[in-house]
Specification:
Blueprint (H helix, E strand, L loop, with lengths): L15 H10 L10 E6 L2 E7 L35 H11 L22 H7 L1 H6 L2 E6 L6 E7 L10 E6 L26 H15 L9 H11 L2 E8 L3 E2 L9 H5 L39 H18 L2 E4 L18 E4 L1 H4 L30 E6 L5 E4 L5 H4 L31 H12 L5 H12 L2
Antiparallel strand pairs: 1-2, 2-6, 3-5, 4-10, 6-7, 8-9, 10-11
Helix pairs in contact: 5-6, 8-12
The structure holds heme C (2 copies).
One heme C binds next to β8, α9, α11 and α12.
Length: 465
Amino acid sequence: MLKRHLLGLPIVVSTGAVAGMLAASVSTSGETDPHQLASDDPTGQVRTFNVNGALDLDNPFFKDLGTNGRTCFSCHRPAQGWTITPVSVEGRFVESQGLDPIFRTNDGSNCEGADVSTVGKRRDAFSQLLNRGLIRIGIDVPAGAEFVIDSVDDPYNCGAPLTAVSMYRRPLPSTNLRFLSAVMWDGRESSPATTTLQDLAKQADDATQGHAQASLHLTPQEAQAIVAFETGLFTAQARDDRGGSLRADGATGGPVALSQQPFFIGINDPVGLNPTGAPFDPNAFTLFNPWAQPDEDDEFTRARRAIARGQQIFNTKPIVISGVAGLNKQTFSNGVTVPEAIIGTCTTCHDAPNAGDHSVKAPLNIGLTDASRRTADLPLYTLRRISSGETVQTTDPGRAMITGKWADVGKFKGPILRALAARAPYFHNGSAATLDEVVAFYETRFNLHLSVQEKADLVAFLRAL
Ligand code: HEC
Ligand code: HEC
């Protein structure tokens, strides 16, 4: 198997297409480490560190294993934090006139099997993918569900039966996977009986059947090779335009330090699920501690101090958390019940140290899918609970489409918060176009009352992850 050093030029490879796209994404800033892939992003540079060595383009991750020309790389690209961004998708649309394999009507278009016979029709048909980088996840209401769908207000008039739901979701990054506690936004690839590595192998096969429309299963060897590849990847912002290198002066930003970050299921859990019995420490992020008290007062150090202040806000700013299904009034496996309202922090939910996801499976409803936040480009489903007749409107029933449980409507996992700057927009439905909009969401949802300075600091920190 030929390993190609993507940053050591020249790149001469047979898999020309992929190598070309990767090479194009590599910044020419003098970086020569073949284990790292660097790309400029809107606020600096994002890097991927591969613990297995140079990126192996012969890995099945880059292979056309289905029937529609797609590979994992169609939707998971290093320059975009191993997901896709609307800007990059638009570029592919223009270049290919909307014929690149990402533009397929099984799940790339707003409606299944959309009319894509002209460039103009393709632009309309793929508007969610082009505008927000969203893929359509179609799931049938599970047998025995506690609810039925009464009606749907569908902006695309797809004409699907009321037993099937179309949910428009961001591809999750296929990197930093060693920190996962649940696979997929709704945890559907995870089960209590399996390990995350087993879940990822099944996910790879399901992605090949679904997104790539394969007629055959992956061989166990292919699935293992994909999992070995993707779990070797660590991606983080490495340079910030204002603060410079995120490893300077003792800071531990960037992907190499991330690859050494300890993780196990339950680490730093806030409700007592840490298997070591260690108490929760709200200071889940420590990357920029050394930047809190700098000596100098130049532009760089001022930017660094803002990042450190943002980290402090993320770790310690008190937030009244109430009405979050899956947390408030939830009883966990150790018998702990969380009160109706608690004073927490961002790290109550983003608790995994320096990774920022939730270290145990904890699907939460933070209100993103409520009717009040619905935008005109999303469908609105009215669900009715069979036992009581009560109804709820939601743009995406989330975990409820897997468990069939009424209590799970609108629940999603908290994703890993690294390499954010490279991969806007945010949240499962891409509803926050920028990190400022993420913070604005939390402002309104939890009445944070952050000052202008605090908001700017928090964004500076998120951008540096
Ligand atoms: C057409 C686009 C597309 C293709 C092709 C694709 N994915 Fe994805 N991927 C997604 C979307 C969308 C999600 C999130 C869906 C959800 O959670 O409902 C996702 C989620 C994932 C996740 C979950 C990460 C997490 O945090 O839970 C992994 C891992 C992943 N994909 C790997 C792969 C692999 C491996 C392949 C190739 C076999 C692949 N993907 C092909 C769009 C794609
Ligand atoms: C009550 C739990 C909770 C709290 C508190 C919380 N989050 Fe989140 N966060 C989540 C969940 C759940 C998601 C995923 C929601 C979705 O997309 O459906 C999320 C998503 C995010 C994302 C988007 C990540 C991505 O990949 O799209 C960012 C950024 C984020 N949170 C930052 C913050 C910040 C900053 C704070 C504090 C001001 C905070 N969170 C407080 C639960 C929480």
